[in-house]
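Please decode residue identities from the backbone states below.
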């Protein structure tokens, strides 16, 4: 069973370093941003801030990395 957005965000809030999130820094034109995996197809692109995170894009892998 694949997890969904709500489950991903709950897991991230409890344990941002959980390996299941596949959190990683982005490169190229997206330096400074990070990505989380919702499931095998969908990603969340976000920017870490001093107060938390800002969600920038949610979608399929090819859509969110189009820059």
């Amino acid at each position: 069973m694949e997890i969904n957005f709500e489950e991903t965000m709950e897991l991230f809030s409890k344990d941002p370093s959980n390996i299941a999130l596949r959190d990683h820094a982005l490169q190229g034109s997206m330096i400074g941003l990070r990505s989380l995996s919702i499931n095998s197809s969908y990603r969340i692109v976000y920017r870490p801030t001093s107060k938390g995170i800002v969600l920038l894009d949610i979608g399929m892998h090819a859509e969110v990395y189009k820059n």
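Observation: The longest helix spans residues 5-14.
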